[in-house]
Amino acid sequence: GDRKRLEPQFESEKGTIEDINGIIQCDKGQLKWPSLNFKYLDVPYKTEGTLTNFQSPQVQLRLSSKDLSLDSDLEVKDKLVNLTKLSGKYLNSDFSFKGNINTVNAPSLETQISGEFNLNLKDTKEMFKKIPGQGGSAFGEKLDQIKPEGLVNMQVALKGNINDFKSCDVQAKLSSVGISVYGLNAKEFSLTYNQSDGIADIPIIHLSLYDGAVDGKANMNLNSANLPYWISADIQGIKLEKLKLDTPVKNKDIAGTLQAQVKLNGFPNDISKLSGAGNISITNGKLWQLNLFQGLGSLLFARDDFSNIVFSDASCGFVVQDKYIFTDSLKLKSNVTDLSGTVKIGFDNSIDASINVEVLDEMAPLSGTFKDITTAIVGQGGIFGVIKISGTLKDPKYKFKPAISNIIKGLKDAFFGKPR
User: Fold this and answer.
1) Cis bond before residue 107 (omega within 30° of 0)
2) pLDDT digit string, tens, across residues 227-268
3) Residue-level pLDDT at 378
4) Of the candidates 278, 257, 298, which has an alpha carbon nearest to the alpha carbon of residue 389?
5) What is the rounded (10 degree) CA torsion for 366, 369, 370, 372?
6) Which of 9, 107, 281, 306 is buried deepest, with most CB atoms within 10 A?
7) 183 in helix, strand or coil?
8) Element (H, E) at 216
């Protein structure tokens, strides 16, 4: 048969195929390339394969590079591409697919394909680096912040025009025995994804982590230009003393059991439109060494060991709107003092809070503007004062406003006795 050595270049919108060289063998309706080399986006590739029956081509193709290996078998008949095998490995991830693509109405490519991914989440950053243009780079930067890790198995089936993905019907199931995002670790992960008529629906999201669990669901309208989405989540039994070990506050004395429910809606590219509502509670909480509460405790208590004070119950209902998280039902209960009030936290980390401090009968001495006379009101009960918090979560500012009438009453009762 004939042998030809090729050294052309091919250009496309996504990049240039260059430095093509190798041998192609032609022999009675069969084409072979036992070793063909080229570069794409400066990465060297090697391919080998055969093409038989030019009327109804059958192709066996193997492709490899430093990070990629690909093995495929396909047949083309009457503009129907039958993919009997497409398997391979990229970095530390592998995949296997089969199906068919109908090109009769090209550029519409009616596709029916199913298969399986075993995805190493660390590979996703490198995958998006390979996408030309700003889209891949922007998502790659987000992945730097998210820091995904773990092995995820994904089984997927797709049907529809692959060139118009939002119109496709998709069913997918993801699972993992352990993943990590933002440095937080989950022992179990499962997710079900269904897509039909331009609606992406996730009826099941489950994570087991830190002795608790997160269960949620979500959906998104792919037919709308701004892609509105809805999310709901139920958080139960998260142990803060274990969660903190995977955060920058791992060396601080923080503990408690977290429960929360939240519902949110918004648009992916406009965080200012995020809105929703929810509630959160922490039982048996040791929170004083958190930055915000540490300053609060230093203002309130005369002694330095206030971090041992445990909140038997801490809770609030909240709303998310206009780039703020707001609650007017904050409650923190302990055997020493009860705190309650309103808190407004901005998406820019600003804080505006007003916290009422209530003295309990068993309470230890408080400090503040009237530190020298607080011993006189210990045991009297009532509102001790209001603490105003401003600034940012990282650098909060505190201002104490005493409840003058309550303190005067406490002094009067201490000196003259309580009325009978």
Assistant:
1) yes
2) 999 999 999 999 999 999 999 989 998 999 999 999 999 999
3) 41
4) 298
5) 80
6) 306
7) coil
8) strand 212-221
Q: Closest by alpha carbon to 402, among 362, 359, 361, 360?
A: 359
Give me the amino acid identity at 365: P
Rounded Cα distance between 349 and 291, Å, is: 13
What is the chain's percent helix, strand, coil content, to nearest 5? 15, 60, 25
Residue 87 identity: S
Tokens of 377: 């009101």
Task: List all residues 6 or more positions away from 262 whose beta carbon is below 8 Å from its beta carbon.
Answer: 231, 232, 233, 235, 276, 277, 278, 279
* CB of 78 closer than 8 Å to CB of 66: no
356: its two tokens = 């009422």
φ and ψ at 121, to 5 degrees? Answer: -60, -25
Which helix (H) or strand (E) covers residue 205, if one does? strand 199-209
Q: What is the pTM of this model?
A: 0.82
Six-digit token string for 333: 């209960």
* Ordered mean pLDDT values, 10 residues apiece, the chain (420 residues): 49 69 85 90 91 89 94 92 95 96 91 96 81 56 85 97 94 96 93 97 97 97 95 97 93 94 95 96 90 76 68 94 96 87 95 86 46 42 76 89 56 50
The length of the chain, given as a count of residues: 420
Q: What is the pLDDT of residues 369-409, one digit of tens each?
A: 334 344 444 444 455 678 899 999 889 998 887 765 454 45
Q: How far is CA 230 from CA 173, 214, 216, 326, in A?
A: 20, 16, 11, 20
Report phi then psi at 345, rounded to 5.
Answer: -115, 125
